[in-house]
Amino acid sequence: MKKKILLIIPPSSLTLYSKSKIKAAISEIPYISQAALAATLLQDNNQVKILDLSVHHENHLPTLHTILKEFNPDFTGITFTTPLYKEALTIAEEIKKINPNIIIIGGGVHPSALPEETLQESKFDILVLGEGDYTIVELVNTKNTSDFSKIEGICYKDPQKNIIKTKPRQLIKDLDELPYPAWHLYDLKNYQASKLTSKKTPVGAIETSRGCVFGCTYCNKDVFGRRFRMKSPERVVDEIEYMLKLGFKEIHVWDDNFVTNIKRAKEICDLIIKRNLKFPWCLACGIRVDCVDEEFLIKAKKSGCYSVYFGVETGNDEILKKIGKGITTDQVRKAFKLAKKVGLETLGFFMFGLPGETKETMQQTIKFAQELNPDYAKVTILVPFPSTPIYEELERQGRIKTKDWSKYNFHTASRVYEHENLDWSTLEKYYSLFYKQFYFRPNYLSKRVAAGIFNGKIFLDGYYFIKTWIF
Predict the structure, then answer these.
(1) Cα distance between residue 12 and residue 7, in whole Å
(2) N or C end: fewer C-beta atoms under 10 angstroms in the chain?
(3) Are 92 and 104 in contact (CB under 8 A)?
């Protein structure tokens, strides 16, 4: 008999940055991870619901209790990142209070990085390590807990509460074999995107590839690995058409680096144009400056892309080398110049607190951001997430100051580690200074006002300005 599975999104998934400088840019977008897991479970003829508690964050526990009693699932699945760790543990405790027989499965980057610790501290029964698309199907089809040892890529508690970690699961080779994400399990009316980061709503996220071949020391590779695997251009555009028919009005690409294979990226753009699909899209997770060329940017714009995000991190070439970024500031300048020449909106991602950082290098990064002059710029304070090379180095040096994972938030982190040169108050000072010195420049403000008058969004820009800097 097939099983009932409730996939749960923690309540703070969307409000995580609500007290940060980027709060006005936060968009409500249904999560692709649960939609992808639901798809393989449905393909196996199971009964599946997605409960997005971020939609009900103000009364999420009563909502959770109600759904658990009404749906009465055999399994629940909770995917979570490091800052959502405590919240995920609370949800698991609540599930066991309602029905201790429900098997709770955890997954995502944090449990993949720290599976034993997560099981020891929680009510989770099983953790999926790495990709969960087919692992979760095997789990719900397993009749006896004694058979869990045969499933690759999991960590679980046996009946004696011993923690067992099985052999790692091989990464999925052909992503085209995966079913389309089960977006129909979401009510799209619940999701509103910020007009700062989108043109239309609702926005849908698409995953066209998995894995990142590059070695930035602040990045975790525990889920999708370092080998680049991709969906074919035909599959990607078929999936886009499917999403548009379901009611999505805009698409955001959530790949680690969409342009790792630039030939494929261009073919996707060509197919969108050939099929005459009219929709706005953007590269919201960022792409590398050393992987783009003018031909791709032209094709992207022609196919409906309006905005490209670049991972810059710092304006100091020595720090770029220390973090294994593999780019130079000259390559950054070239990429921004090309994107602007083509007429694409640009956004730059920056980071403070990297190895070797000083007051001087942070001011250098601010000046570099001003020089690049993207339409938007975002800076974060480095957070050394578990299992990253930066975290491991800081831990070896005794400079990790807390393992209260709820504090590991890019924009509101609080003294989670000790920097080699800078105290935390200095990092926070320069974090605020970045936004003030970038956004309060006379030439930037005049450009925004002129653009607002031209496109009729002057009052909307004013609203977002007040939301960011006053409230």
Answers:
(1) 15
(2) N
(3) yes
Tell me whether residue 136 is in a domain.
Answer: yes
- Mean per-residue pLDDT, 192-196: 85
Same domain for 80 and 149: yes
**Positive or negative CA dihedral for 192, 30, 92, 117?**
negative
Co-location of 423 and 447 in the same domain: no
What's the pTM value of the predicted model, to 2 decimals? 0.92
Residues 277, 282, 283, 289, CA torsion sign: positive
The alpha-helical segments, DSSP class H, found in 21-132 are: 32-43, 60-71, 85-98, 109-113, 115-120
Structure tokens that stand for 238 in this block: 């078929």
* Peptide bond connecting 202 to the previous residue in cis, omega within 30 degrees of 0: yes
What is the arithmetic mean of pLDDT over 210-229? Answer: 94
CB count, 10 Å around CB of 101?
A: 7
Of the residues 146, 165, 184, the one at which a domain ends? 165
* Residue 176, domain member (yes or no): no
Phi, psi at residue 126, to the nearest 5°?
A: -140, 145
How far apart, in whole angstroms, are the C-alpha atoms of residue 366 and residue 284?
A: 22
Give the CA-trace dihedral at 392, 132, 148, 66, to 10 degrees. 110
Q: What angle do CA 151, 157, 160 make, to 5 degrees?
A: 125
Confidence of residue 235 (pLDDT cuts 50, 70, 90): very high
Question: 10 Å Cβ neighbour count for 417?
Answer: 21
The answer on 222 and 338 residing in a single domain is: yes
Length of the chain as a residue count: 471
The number of folded domains in the chain is: 3
Instruction: Provide the CATH number for the domain around residue 161.
Output: 3.40.50.280
* Domain interval for residue 30: 4-165
Amino acid identity, residue 271?
L
With beta carbons less than 8 A apart as the criterion, state whether 288 and 257 touch: yes
Q: How far is CA 284 from the centre of its chain?
A: 10
57 DSSP assignment: G
Task: Dihedral sign for Cα 145, 149, 152, 153, please.
Answer: positive
User: Residue 181 domain-assigned?
Assistant: no
Residue with structure tokens 């699909």? 277
| Contact residues for 180 (Cβ-Cβ < 8 A; gap 6+) | 39, 239, 242
